[in-house]
Amino acid sequence: MAREYDRAQRVASQLQRELAELIRSELKDPRVDWVTVDDVEVSRDISVAKVYVSTLDPEQVGIAVEALTAASPFLRRELGKRLHMRSIPQLRFFKDTAIERGIRMTQLLEQIAKEREDKDD
User: What is the pLDDT of residues 85-108, one digit of tens each?
Assistant: First the structure.
C-alpha cells in the first residue's frame, strides 16, 4: 500500500512540473497567461489528476480553468510524449483557494489581535 502512495506522489510531482512547462511554453491561449499550477493530486490508481491552478488576477481563474479544461486533450497528448507512462491520467482543473483561505485567516488573526489590543486599553 505504501508503495502505491509513493508512486502517486511521484507522478503528481512530475505532472505538476510538466504541466507548468506545457502551459507556459506550448499553449497559445491568452486566457491562460500567468497561470500557476499550484498542486496536483493523483488518484491511487493514477487514472485521474486534479490540477489546482491560480492566476495573478483572482477574477480570471474561472476563465483560465475553462480554457485549460478545453485544452486538456492537447495537454494529455503532450504529456504522453514527455512521460514514459502506460497511460496518462484524465486532467481535471480546479481553482486553488488555498491562497485566499490563507489571506482570510491572516485577516481574522489581525482582527482578533486588534480587538484584544482595544480591549486591554
Answer: 889 999 999 998 887 788 888 999
φ/ψ of residue 3, rounded to 5: -65, -40
Query: Which CATH superfamily hosts domain 2-96?
Result: K homology (KH) domain (3.30.300.20)
Q: Give the whole-angstrom CA distance, residue 15 versus residue 21.
A: 10
CA nearest neighbour of 40 among 1, 9, 77, 3: 9
Contact 18, 36 (CB under 8 A): no
Q: Which amino acid is at 40?
A: V
The full set of domain ranges for the chain reads: 2-96
First to last CA, the chain: 57
- What is the model's pTM? 0.80
